[in-house]
Amino acid sequence: MKINDFFLPTKISEAYARLKKEGNSAWLMAGGTSTAFVKSTSPKTAIDLTRLPLRGITRKSDHFRIGACATVCDLMEYKAEGWVLDRVARRFVNQHVRNISTLGGNISRVFYWSDFPVALRALEGTLTMRTSKESKVKISEAFHNMLAHRGAFKDVILEYIDVPRLTKGMGFGYSKETRTSEGFSTATVAVFVKVDKGLISDVRIAAGSVFPFPMRFLKMEEALTGEKAEVGCIRKIDFKDLDRYALTPREGMTLDYCKHLLKVKISDGIAQAVAEATGGSR
User: Fold this and answer.
1) % the chain with pLDDT above 70
2) Does residue 1 register a pLDDT over 70?
3) Which end of the chain has less Cβ packing within 10 Å, N or C?
4) Spatial separation of the C-alpha atoms in residues 156 and 158, rounded to whole Å
5) What is the tens place of the pLDDT at every residue in 220-267?
6) Strand ranges (DSSP E) for the chain?
7) Neighbours of 147 (CB within 10 A)
């Protein structure tokens, strides 16, 4: 990536005006940790978002509002009842990168190893985007596929990410495999479960790294919906369904090992989420 100019706005309106002016030559950045992984032969103007007032985390009645420039370290250190993204942040590379990498950056430019897109696909929520005015996009819509994601983030500035606050009867599971503690993920799974009267009323299972872009396992979710909320519900899943997905094994893994690893991670994530939703330990 070749950067030939920098612009440091202090207002979101200034940042958007420059984004609109530069067009395809604009390069939005905050932490900047993804820049090394993006190949571009044309020079760019970097619009540095770090001075914008978009870093805090605020607890609302039923959700948390996160500024797009909040760092992964901010997410890790934030503590509140119903907050779960600290679990994802703790597994994020190392402290040096956590100090500068932002949530907005991690979900705006998605690589196969990206952690938070997987977590957000399971948790759901909304994104607040800024053009000449604010607009909201559901996470499920923005991350439906690569094309939808590209369209949702084109020529906009991400301001806030709203994620649900987990309450009684809800659980979240997160399981990630790496060859080394600081290595890229070889499989990442996130699971959200909601329990009503002892039965699973809602479930979302998302996975990344084994795909170029995070995916949801809709048939597995359907198999669990309505089942008794206990760890044994995992037996209801037909893991042969993995055969119909075009998996991408990483770091020399065989396809069979990739499927096995994914099965283990999905089972771990479901067990964690169910245990939390039913009042047990994660």
Assistant:
1) 99
2) no
3) C
4) 6
5) 999 999 999 999 999 999 999 999 999 999 988 999 999 999 999 999
6) 3-7, 26-29, 44-48, 57-59, 63-67, 126-130, 134-138, 157-164, 170-178, 185-196, 199-208, 215-216
7) 9
How much is the pLDDT for 40? 73
Counting Cα atoms < 13 Å in the Cβ hemisphere of 49 gives: 32
**Residue type (1 letter), 62:** D
Instruction: Answer for the pair 160, 68: CB distance below 8 angstroms, yes or no.
Output: yes
Residues 6+ apart with CB under 8 A from 112: 184, 208, 209, 211, 212, 213, 248, 250
d(CA 140, CA 124): 6
Residue where the block lists tokens 């080394």: 180
SS3 146: helix
Using alpha carbons, list the distances in angstroms from residue 102 to 89, 113, 222. Answer: 11, 15, 33
User: For the sheet containing 199-208, what is the strand order?
Assistant: 170-178, 185-196, 199-208, 215-216
For the beta sheet containing 157-164, the strands, ordered from the edge strand earlier in sequence to the opposite edge, are 57-59, 63-67, 157-164, 126-130, 134-138
- Which residue stretches of the chain are H helix? 12-22, 72-77, 85-90, 95-100, 103-108, 116-123, 139-142, 146-152, 218-224, 255-277
Torsion of CA 159, 165, 166, 172, to 10 degrees: 10
Cα 68 from chain centroid? 12
Decide if pLDDT at 31 tops 60: yes
* Gap between the terminal Cα atoms of the chain: 42
